């Protein structure tokens, strides 16, 4: 594929990250319809699409900079903001999550005292930053994965299969992805239950393994024009299969059911993710035909918006909770305000300091005068 920038992919990546703000704003109103459907919808496309696009762009950067330059630049760009946000943002975010869902406690009590066990709210040390751990692992694996694609002739293998079987190959890949999800989840459950005690890296390891096929397919999409074209087509048979699986799954207990129901859940999620990616990419390719100022404004700041959004969501919600009792108003106000504040933080503060750009975006650039 060409090394030219593909602007609609920037738009898709920005959309996936901004959609995450609505997902996490919905945590203010847990287990209430229709807000619980936002997270369910997200699980069918958001991070898989994001990682596939990340794989595509990773190949582009690898070819430009070589192994050493690629690894150095990407690990810095990901690792520095990760470390900074884990230290500066996440402790405050977790504190705000706690007091919003459980009532006020002092900062000293929260961090150094005793709080009741099993508090309400989505509190975990990494919060939304888990994806940076995954990306760093994928970046480290990129040279080996590209070597495998090249020496295994996987791009040519796919092209031959596509010529012979057409769109059925996408359904086959989706089925393999679903089967892989069952294998990974089963293996992890067995290993962590039988051999390893609970540890803070369990979620990160599981999600990293779960999403690596999509990053790998992003690498393949850059190397194989046939696959790139295939995932930009709306496949009605694939989407019909996905809909059928989702209907069957809706009649079960899903992750709360037995082993067969859990397997169906993981298979359906893996299968559907790959099928929906084609729908999303084709729509954005049709709508976004070139560069634009609004797209650039959002895409260059979306990283900052995403890093800060958890803190902003719960700071806003904690401040306005006494005054807004309607869930719909709360959700709309907090989610949209979070995006606006995040854009303002980037363009008004971060972008104007080369050191803040380095700390929060991992890039040393000249400040905008």
TrEMBL record:
The keyword Acyltransferase applies. One of its GO terms (molecular function) is acyltransferase activity, transferring groups other than amino-acyl groups. The chain crosses the membrane at residues 7-29, 44-63, 75-100, 127-149, 161-183, 203-222, 234-251, 271-289, 301-324, 330-350. It comes from the Bacteria. Keywords: Acyltransferase, Membrane, Transferase, Transmembrane, Transmembrane helix. Residues 6-345 form the Acyltransferase domain. InterPro entries: Acyl_transf_3_dom, Glucan_succinyl_AcylTrfase. This is Acyltransferase family protein.
């Amino acid at each position: 594929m060409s090394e030219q920038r593909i602007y609609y992919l920037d738009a898709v990546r920005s959309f996936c990250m901004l959609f995450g703000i609505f997902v996490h704003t919905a945590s203010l109103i847990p287990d209430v319809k229709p807000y619980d459907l936002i997270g369910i919808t997200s699980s069918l496309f958001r991070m898989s699409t994001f990682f596939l696009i990340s794989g595509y762009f990773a190949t582009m950067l690898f070819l430009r900079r070589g192994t050493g330059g690629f690894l150095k630049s990407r690990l810095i760009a990901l690792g520095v903001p990760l470390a900074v946000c884990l230290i500066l943002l996440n402790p405050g975010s977790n504190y705000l999550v706690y007091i919003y869902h459980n009532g006020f406690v002092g900062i000293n009590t929260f961090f150094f005292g005793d709080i009741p066990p099993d508090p309400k709210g989505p509190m975990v040390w990494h919060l939304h930053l888990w994806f940076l751990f995954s990306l760093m692992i994928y970046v480290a694996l990129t040279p080996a994965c590209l070597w495998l694609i090249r020496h295994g002739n996987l791009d040519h293998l796919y092209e031959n299969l596509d010529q012979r079987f057409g769109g059925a190959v996408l359904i086959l890949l989706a089925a393999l992805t679903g089967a892989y999800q069952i294998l990974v989840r089963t293996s992890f459950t067995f290993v962590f239950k039988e051999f390893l005690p609970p540890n803070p890296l369990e979620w990160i390891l599981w999600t990293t393994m779960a999403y690596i096929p999509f990053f790998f397919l992003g690498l393949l999409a850059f190397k194989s024009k046939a696959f790139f074209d295939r995932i930009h087509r709306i496949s009605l048979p694939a989407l019909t299969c996905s809909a059928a699986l989702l209907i069957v799954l809706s009649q079960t207990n899903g992750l709360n059911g037995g082993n067969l129901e859990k397997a169906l859940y993981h298979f359906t999620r893996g299968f559907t993710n790959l099928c929906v990616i084609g729908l999303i990419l084709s729509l954005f390719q049709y709508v976004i035909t070139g560069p634009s100022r609004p797209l650039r404004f959002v895409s260059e700041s979306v990283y900052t918006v995403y890093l800060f959004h958890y803190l902003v969501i719960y700071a806003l919600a904690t401040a306005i909770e006494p005054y807004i009792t309607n869930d719909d108003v709360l959700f709309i106000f907090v989610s949209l305000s979070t995006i606006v504040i995040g854009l303002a933080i980037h363009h008004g503060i971060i972008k104007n300091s080369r050191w803040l750009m380095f700390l929060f975006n991992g890039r040393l650039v000249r400040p905008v005068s």
